[in-house]
Amino acid sequence: MADETKKTGEINNDVNRRQFFAKLGLGSLGIAAAGTAAFAYQYLDPNVLYEPSPVVNAGKPDRYPLGSVTIDVNSGIYIIHSDEGYFSLSAVCTHLGCMTAWKPELNMIACPCHGSKFNEDGKKIEGPAPRPLPWKRIWLNDDGDLLVDRSTDVPALAQDSYVRV
Amino acid sequence: MAKTIDQYFDDLRGTRVWRSVFRSGTGSSTLKRALAVQQNVFLHLFSTKVRTRMLSFSATWYLGTLTLGTFLILVATGIPLMFYYHPSVPQAYADTKDLQFVVSSGLFLRNLHRWSAHAMVFLVFAHMFKVFYRGAYRAPREFNWVIGVILLLMTLLLSYTGYLLPWDQLAYWAITVGSNIASAVPVIGEKIHFLLLGGNAVNANALLRFYVLHCMILPLTAMFFVAIHFWRIRKDGGLYSHDSEPATVRAKVQTSASTSATPAKEGQ
Description:
The complex is a heterodimer.
Chain A: H1 2-12, H2 17-44, E1 55-59, E2 69-72, E3 77-82, E4 85-90, E5 101-103, E6 108-110, E7 117-118, E8 124-126, E9 135-140, E10 146-154
Antiparallel strand pairs in A: 1-10, 2-3, 3-4, 4-9, 5-6, 6-7, 7-8, 9-10
Chain B: H1 5-14, H2 16-21, H3 30-38, H4 57-60, H5 63-82, H6 89-101, H7 106-133, H8 142-164, H9 169-182, H10 189-197, H11 204-235, H12 246-267
Helix pairs in contact in B: 5-7, 6-7, 7-8, 8-9, 8-11
């Protein structure tokens, strides 16, 4: 009897059977909840996107006369034929994603949503846009068409960022 | 001898079927009337007794009740709109135009939904300002203010998600701008933007996600919090709480001011 009391006294500092099962239950629920959260996140994060290809065919270079700024609203890019060659700018405003427009009478690119202004090199003239319009990779394919990769930014005004025909 | 309409109702309330549905039974004693509220699954959220003067227009301007009214109109008009609207890129805009110009009473339902949505946003803000300026957020009602802030957020999210569904230029660019604001969240902003739209741009996935949020997830969440909001009114002492009445608060301030002023007077 005395031994038994001593024994329970020792066990009292530890978890008893009831507490152990309660902890086991709560622990399993916690793991299940974490699993459900991970499951939900992975389910809602699409693995396949049926979005348009980032590579756009802008057609033959002779469509763009020297000194012209041409927008393609469907793909959201400008093709600009400058003295240095052809280059491509994103037409999506760096502020909140509206489609900008080329204003020939002002000689600048302007955003209709919040009034950001850029010059034809994409350089910011006035805000609220935080960054200049990014330059996009442009090259000629074997058929002589201009291709633009909208997912790849290239340095502005760099020699490699132009296509010369 | 012909029975009066009231007597017919009394007979109806005495039937076994009625008694099995409404367990409070017949009679209009204070107890029976209190039981009728307490034993009803919807009404039990509310207090069984309310002071008459708290039901006067000046006490609340009925702003909370009016907000509930617009919410019920939005549910009642939104469900019929779902019968004609397909949340898909080729159909959404055409369906909206059909509702506007072709479907019988479609114009009425859509406009009622639209104007009620605007009214609900206005009323929610008006309700919040009224509660703020009347000091009704004070103890014991602090937690109900927090529930109210969640409901304000739900209202704005419902408004925002519903805005995309007509799939016109206004909707498209408003959601483009709005979802880009979400990208401004530090570190996880781009991920929130991607998950919200189900892609990198406002497209078919975004339309479907906003539709599910607008018609299922947000209304159910809002109803859940509305139920807590109403139940808390009773738990926090009903519409009337003596402690937070402006008159009581003023009286308290005056009493404490005069007690602190009295010794100074005596000293002079």
